[in-house]
Amino acid sequence: MTFGARYRDAVGSRGRFCVGVDPHPELLTAWGLGVDADGVRRFADICVEAFAGTAAVVKPQVAFFEPFGADGFAVLADLIAACRAGGALVLADAKRGDIGSTMAAYASAWLADGSPLRADAVTVSPYLGFGALAPALSAARAADGAVFTLARTSNPDGTGVQTARVMGTGVTVAQQIVDEAAGENADGSASVGLVVGATRAHGLDLARFGGPILAPGLGAQGASAADLPEVFAGADTRWVLPASSRDILRHGPDVAALHAAVERTRDEVEGALGP
Ligand SMILES: O=C(O)c1cc(=O)[nH]c(=O)n1[C@@H]1O[C@H](COP(=O)(O)O)[C@@H](O)[C@H]1O
Fold first, then answer.
1. 31-35 long-range contacts, CB within 8 A, separation 24+
2. Ligand 1 centroid – CA 243 distance (Å)
3. Domain locations along the chain
4. In CATH, which of 3.30.70.20, 3.40.50.300, 3.40.1190.20, 3.20.20.70 is domain 3-273?
5. Phi-psi category of 232—alpha, beta or left, where left has phi over 0 and alpha has psi -120 to 50?
6. Partners of 244 in the β-ladder
7. What is the Å distance from ligand 1's center to 188 Cα?
């Protein structure tokens, strides 16, 4: 079953929302946990309980596990496996990007069967050239998984480079990434997703893009569900996947409150985007 089919099933039954698992040190402390591997493990266990059976997509932010070394990666591996076992798709937010031969190794870590970190999808950065992502795209297809490539990020610092014109064309860097990603999805597999922040007008033509569009920025970065129809006017909103981390996680460590926050935000998103 292609990633596209699995994705449609997940959002069809659970709604369009991606919850981020970002164990910031401040959140660990606010949850009464230590800023150490044991604290991250407890944080992850609570997130599994609250999200694995509810959210269509769970997105662990790898950066917050890395400071704990091998112990942090062991927690991450268990979180990924438990969320997948609970029926959520897992998008590992690792933002990998390197020369092609190195991308193949990254892709096998996050997408190959048998890897301890095997997720359904991984975020990648196309700024060593979209073509450098080719081994990751092949690995994604082989695994019925996906890579989500940054296009127009939610942070203000990205604007200069992402809205620059590609030499010899009138097309922005971000639009060229969208167009190349759309070409990869022409086979209908939806094995390439985009990352387009929900925080502002992105200036992209997304009309021909047939794959998931991760839209981070809800809550802590200022975007709201009510902004989504305008920001994603012109896109096929069935593919838009709004995401939030801190605005959900601030309701922890109470499992019921976290669960309710996901359902509430998902309902707001579904209401705003419409069928
Ligand atoms: O790829 C991402 O998920 C991402 C892309 C982007 O443009 N902006 C962005 O905020 N993110 C990630 O989405 C999460 C946002 O967290 P909150 O601001 O707490 O909702 C973080 O893990 C970011 O690394």
1. 31/252, 31/253, 32/253, 33/253
2. 8
3. 3-273
4. 3.20.20.70
5. alpha
6. 19
7. 27
Q: Is the CB of 191 under 6 A from ligand 1?
A: no
- Strand partners for 123: 148
Cβ of 145 less than 6 Å from ligand 1:
no
Q: Which of 84, 95, 250, 251 is catalytic?
A: 95
Is 95 annotated in the active site?
yes
Q: Is the distance from the beta carbon of residue 241 to the nearest atom of ligand 1 less than 6 Å?
A: no
Tell me the ipTM for this assembly: 0.99
Is residue 100 within 8 A of residue 132, CB to CB? The reply is yes
- C-alpha distances out from residue 18 to 33, 57, 251, Å: 24, 5, 16
- Residues constituting the chain: 275
Q: Is there an atom of ligand 1 within 6 Å of 220 CB? A: yes
**Per-position pLDDT tens, the chain of length 275:** 999 999 999 999 999 999 999 999 999 999 999 999 999 999 999 999 999 999 999 999 999 999 999 999 999 999 999 999 999 999 999 999 999 999 999 999 999 999 999 999 999 999 999 999 999 999 999 999 999 999 999 999 999 999 999 999 999 999 999 999 999 999 999 999 999 999 999 999 999 999 999 999 999 999 999 999 999 999 999 999 999 999 999 999 999 999 999 999 999 999 999 99
Nearest CA to ligand 1 atom 24: 61
